[in-house]
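Review this fold:
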Amino acid sequence: MNSIWDNLYDRFKDRRYGVLFLASLVALVLSPVLLPVMGLYFLGRGWSAFCLAQENRRNQLRHSPLSRDELRAARSKLRNGMKPVNRPVPQAPDTFLKY
């Protein structure tokens, strides 16, 4: 009793395209099943990545408000154009002690 696969392969084995024919036949049969499944998988992964990015963006915008001292320091930096505050240079203590 001959199977359908033997008959299909026997017709094309002399041309050495049997493997190519069978692979394309399997791909043709499985593509209506696999393409929607893969499409739904990638759509779900994309939606998950999108939702995760939105949540991360929302969490980044939550900052505690600045205290009065921090606000004053920030305003003074903006007014001074980020110039350093002029403070006297600390002098090193005199280490040369005469006894």
In short: The first helix runs from residue 4 to 12. The chain has a mean pLDDT of 80. The radius of gyration is 38 Å.
